[in-house]
Amino acid sequence: MAEPKPDRGKFSGSHNLKNRMLAVVGAPGVESVAVPVLSRVHSTLRQGGFNPDFSFYNQVRTDMLQGLRSAQEGKLGGSVSFIRHDLTPKPLLTDGVGQAYVYGGTGYSHSTFEVRNGQVVDELRRVDRPLEPGENVIDLMARDFTRKVDGKRVEVKAVSGNIGQELIPGTGRFGELDGTPTAASQGVKGQVIELRSMGDMVREKLGKPHLPVTVANDTISIAGSDGSAIIGTGLNKGLLGREIQTVDILPAPESGRNVFFDFRADLYDSQGVTLQDQAGRRIAVNLESGGQEMPAYTKPLIARIDAQLEDPKERDKHEIEKLAAGGYLHLNFNLAAQDLGLSTRIKPGKEIDVLAESDPGEAGEIARILLIRSAMLEAAQLAAIHEFMGGNPITLIGDGSLITKGWNGNFKEMVQDGLKMFGVPEGGVTIETPDDVAMKGARGLLTGSIDLVA
Fold first, then answer.
1. Spacing of C-alpha 326 from chain mean position
2. Can you tell me the distance from the alpha carbon of 163 to that of 157, in angstroms, rounded to the nearest whole number?
3. pTM of the model
């Protein structure tokens, strides 16, 4: 006799989502929920490394927390990079025309805008389009530099870039935050660029040696309140320290303590008094959390995913990203469907959401399991950050297709349900998702308005 199937169209809504998550994850200490009737899918995916139980997610949380604490003590070298940034203390543009670029995930945008008294007052030109494989960010920034708007000549006084790849931060010739691509970032989206200052490369391409150019990783660009959380095509997080005040008098760091994550540590003089000329300065840390290694259970699956990647530079790294981020979910789905002997195959994009919401059969159940897994992995890292930050409520600015609109808009709610499974109280982690946040962050690199209002 064929297995009964659940009713169509009943996979969203708070009650059903929570019950389904509990059934799939099996978190301890919660009321038992019967496993859905599609047992063949669950058992096959469990055996294939697709469908972890709660102990796996708890290990991910524990490993992330240990990495954060080790970094604070100066014991680096784990799977997650922690890249510290000194944010530009003064705005690069208070009056005039600026240009901002967003490059990351699957999209590319640039905006030419006017600033008066430090505020964006008008957008003169805007272009948004898909990012094509192999497009070089430096070439794009030079090619699309604005010289005219509606036939009238404009003078762009400063340029910024919100770049969705790993960068080593530095200080440019005008005191601005600049970045150098890393060897690990090569091959991202098929592009290869030189491993030197992006600001210098843009100026050289444009033939404008005196143009201020500031670039930052996407987690730094959009960081507001306590930091940022990105989960879409990729996965990453950032933390933000508060602005230094001229009246701050702070205790000196403990002797022998590496204060990598004590955001204001390098602002102390020998007496422990904040240096007066550091007022307005902020420290931010790009966690590069998409690089976290995964426990042994998923290693064979990750190797199978790597074998599907055309570019060898994308293999053998970013393990959590390959299980959680939207850029890889179609590969996970197609491998799971293959193991189940199903003919269904999907492409990157919304197809997995459509199946999860509307397909009552085995293909839909694969999609639901994978999206729940993404939400639980995101929740595991956020729970670690919450504990690392002292268990105090934190607010992060969020971006990315999953956190903003995944699973018919329910993905963010699933992350919150996952946080509760880890014991994070309601309101412990808030993720705000402002409209057009990536471009707002790119402009903020110039205007100094790094804090974003949802």
1. 11
2. 20
3. 0.87
